[in-house]
Amino acid sequence: MESTNIKQFTPKDFKSDQYVRWCPGCGDHAIVNVLQKAMAEIGIEPHETAVISGIGCSSRLPYYMSSYGFHTIHGRGAAIATGVKIANPRLQVWQITGDGDCLAIGGNHFIHSVRRNVDINVLLFNNQIYGLTKGQYSPTTKKGFVTKSSPFGTVERPFRPAELTIGSRGTFFARTLDVDLKTNQHVMIAAAKHKGTSIIECLVNCIIFNNGAHNWISDKATRADRTILLEDGKPMIFGSERNKGLVLDGLDLKVVTIGEGGITESDIPIHRVDTEDPTLHLKLAMMEGPDKPIAVGVIRDIPAEAYDKAVEEQISSVQARSKIKTFDDLMDAMEQWEM
Amino acid sequence: MEQTKLKEMGQVVVRFSGDSGDGMQLTGTLFSNLSAILGNEISTFPDFPAEIRAPQGTVGGVSGFQVHLGAGRIYTPGDDADVLVAMNPAALKVNAKGVKKMGVIIFDTDSFRESDLRKAQFETDNPFEESGLSDTVQLLPVALTSLTKKALENLHLDNKAVVRSKNMFALGLVCWLFNRPVDRAIHFLENKFGKKPDILHANIKVLTDGYNYGNNVDLSISTVVIEKSTDVPKGKYTSISGNKAAAYGLIAAAEKAGLPLFLGSYPITPATDIMQELAQRKDLGVKVVQAEDEIAGITTAIGAAFAGSLAATNTSGPGLALKSEAIGLAVMAELPLVIIDVQRSGPSTGMPTKTEQTDLLQALYGRNGESPVAVIAASTPHDCFHYAYMASKIALEHTTPVILLTDAFIGNGSSLWKLPKSADLPEIHPHTVKAGMEGCKVVARNNTTKARYWSFPGMEGFMHRNGGLEKDYYTGSISTDPVNHQKMVDMREEKISYISQVIPEAKVEGNENADILVIGWGGTYGHLKAAVAEMNQKGNKFGLLHFNYINPLPKNAAALIRRYKKAIVCELNSGQFASFLRSKVTGVTFLQYNKVQGQPFTVSELVEHFDTLR
User: Fold this and answer.
1) Would you state the pLDDT for residue A1?
2) Which residues of A touch B236 (CB under 8 A)?
């Protein structure tokens, strides 16, 4: 990578010639377009970029990117992306995954890549359903939901990706809606800048098997009142009239209205993404309707050492101390005798 | 000091045996290294339980280390022992059948009390008679524990540390028995315990006392002089285990290929040493990820291969099973990848520390779809280096996963190794894209070898999308065209078959005009070679055809086998290589000799069976 020569990229530079095979109306179309825009803005060369995926609808995404891409096997994207990043830390590595790929078959790799804090950017497309196998419930499907494999409603308790991320000591978590292009782009750029595993949970609509799952928050008419866009350094205010805010009430968060009961804008706490203690981040990420808004935007983004960097640094420090520089040196250093 | 009785021997087998906490592995390693330094060929066989500390004094907790040393070429760790060191009755019980007639048994009288005998399930008070040994062995009773305590009485060590040193008394005694000066052993102890001066001092004191005890007490037993080896090529040697050698083979190959080395791995007996050895080599830039599971072990490696490293993963049978889907991805994505399987006894968890060759068919066929990979096998501890090197060379030059089969016997065992120089190793030319090929498709390949041109992120002009979906032969785009799929399946098979053109031809050892051809593969080489040699010494005409390259077979293999009237395939499974050969070499009746007991062959059982074939 030549850092002295700053190139300007356009989204087209990241667009491949492949025919996009997602269903018309699928939320994934929007995401791939935003990702190409975000990558142009991030400014890393397409050939210095690797996009890794597992299996599922969303995992087809690497075919549509002009970069190095690897469409691998179900659930293993996180481990493969880890290998790519460790082997060549200079690369920008994106992992594309879905709720089944990431949290069911790939759950183990997910928590461990987050725990290690490998510097990869993860786009987790959460549509709460298995689309490519035609409509079975996933680990994020709401309890009671009727699918082809739960004809009487699921009896399983769903995962909440934020909780799993923070439970795995995650250093970056953001949430977006597929329809909110601006926030998506902003969040992707923040994820790319973050050193460590960045998890972006993108709430995506599956038009065929789970149509409208996120409508209650993503509909333009109600979005402003049912979601809160968290921004670092800004008060936690939301609502179509920008008059609602979140305040701490004991160990809980509570919605208040500015101008009522003596509440002014200065009573609304400021969102800080870089607080190491994850308690408030978790509280924010776990808010569910209807009494509280769903948090979107960057919820957590704390500085921490990235695994790939730690690996490199350990190697450098051992190399600085060791006399063994080549295989022949290694042989010379062995216990040996003449025969 | 009187040394009245002295006998000369060409080779001896010594077995150290005790509780898994008695330090038998260390004692055996020290003695074998000492013998190697003094000019002997060696072959060792550590045989230990899976339990770290099984209940003390029980048969299940017995840990043994056998070493075969001698003046001539040594191919196996030996069948029966000339000298058995038995630290307790359980060790005697386990090894009673494995002592030669008129062999010596050194045993610790302090741990042969009644309660010890009962723990080892002896019913009488004379375990030797009960084991049928009273007339056939020379007993050397020594109060190892109390003599060790006496040796250390002024050193103010805790009782545990004192008792743990008794293995050094036994080692001192064995050194006396074989006229081995202990000062060379002291040098090894300094390397091991240099950071713990109290323990080092105690070990040296006990070792020396053990040696002097043999010298000063009239033990009515002959000491032995073993001649130096004369027929090994001159040069610098070390003693190396198969696992360490395999790790070094990868290091040498990466350096030769000019690529970084990456290992993704998950701890599993008996393969973990390979990971631990490579984790030591940060100075050579080796990157090791201890993954969250076996699948991540191989998939991180596949990621590293995609990104341009010489990538490897190591495992044993259960881990290979978990990796099978990912191996299929490496086949489909045509990425270079080395998978080392240190085979152990199965199925399932089986007997994790015991040896077997039961993963052959899993390695060849254990994947979905038509999924050919190259399969090769190492045959001795030290040649794990060569075959790990060759596995890497084939993977990189033919852009394919290669499975290297070793086993617990050669992985943990050690043999003498002539230290190689990088300059003497064969060249490795990774099949990467070349300048001027910019814009080529992901499936661009050499038309003869079918090897794909490998390019990776960071290279300008070669961006591509790879993956597990079937690709169009020409464009590399995803394709479900029926005829194209057939073409791709055939191409992948051809790519592996082509490797037979570049590997060495098969050769028959022993008698080339044999009446009976013995066929083996992998870690049984030493035993088969020794057994065939013995048959030929007895005036028979036996040949040995031993395979290291299994898929593909060397190109002359079928014709060579057909030249012999009778062929018997000997392997530590129920006939996996035999059935593979039947599918590849038609018109031959393959006899079989199989053993699935978690133990290597013995030369004597092979000879006994070969005698029935004449």
Assistant:
1) 46
2) 336-339
